[in-house]
Amino acid sequence: MKFYLIAGEASGDLHASHLIAALKAEDPEAEFRGFGGDLMQAEGMTLVRHYRDLAYMGVIDVVLHARTILSGMRQCKDDIVAWKPDVVILVDYPGFNMKIARFIHERTLCPVYYFIAPKLWAWKEWRIKDLRRDVDEIFSILPFEVEFFEGKHHVPIHYVGNPTVDEVARYYEDNHADAQSEHSTPPLTGQVREGASLALLCGSRINEVRDNLWMMLVAAAPYDADFSIQIAGVSVLPRDVYEQSITKAETVLGRKLRVDLVFDATYPLLSQATAALVTSGTATLETALFRVPQVVCYAKRYPWLMATAKKVLLKIPFVSLVNLIVGREVVPEIILTDMTPETIRHHLQSILPGGEAREAQLRGYEEMAARLGEPGAPQHAAKLMIQTLSAS
Known about the structure:
Rossmann fold, 2 domains, seven-stranded parallel β-sheet, 17 helices, 15% strand, globular
């Protein structure tokens, strides 16, 4: 079979790469092509365009880069028509992927499968009609989505488990299978320094890094004598994006910071971190699965405007996956107009060893892990995809 996949960010690239591996195990003759990243390409997918060329988030950034996004969409449509896949698998990235789904449906080109469903439970719930019309099968990785899609809107979905559970479990198996607690990991080598550390996960998009990292650094600065402050960078972004944020933080502080910038090593950083500051997204889930207490931080340009939009558009009580999965506040969320270095620092202090919130947060992580279930999400999804395609 011929599989065309579309992922638009680092986490989608990671999840899709494992799905490709699982599909190859089910169908050794499978061919793969699409939009994505280095990990998907490494699994054998012909990479038509890298996600970094189209990785814009938020109304303002999308408007500013509309020409680039539209060009990428035209390229994707033309490539699907020319290649004639047996199925198109959309991986998250709804602003782009829902338009591709409609294009394919209108032309009846092939079935459309959605792996990692659009977060319509958060906003744009009215788009459920588009999903029902344009997507043939939905594969969910969040347990609470079953009630939203099937219970509320009568749209069938498959909950296949969460691939981040698999990815973290695989990391532990490969690197320190004997670890029994949050601090019993083996020493790390290379760029990652050994010892107590604070991990800063500031996102995978340029605007996320620019808006969040400098405040995270200012908040963590009082602890740089006792902890190694380590920034989890992604190599698809220019190094100077991070260096500019470090310089801005040092200007605010009036001194140099002791900080490490480590690229493409999020799991090694988390495996030995004492606590973390994390932007909203998959990183909050990864941090929780590594049992690292965290403060969720998310700033945007024009925070007052974005805060107003949030009140009007968002239909959920939380923004972090940890809190949404458990159904209550497990990790503090410091976002938009509430986000200041002082507020972040206050919550960071409470989750360091001896802090009043640390143990409660770790107990909440166990509840979250139980709800997510056991590893096996990519394999489960691949089997279902092959079965449904064979039956159609």
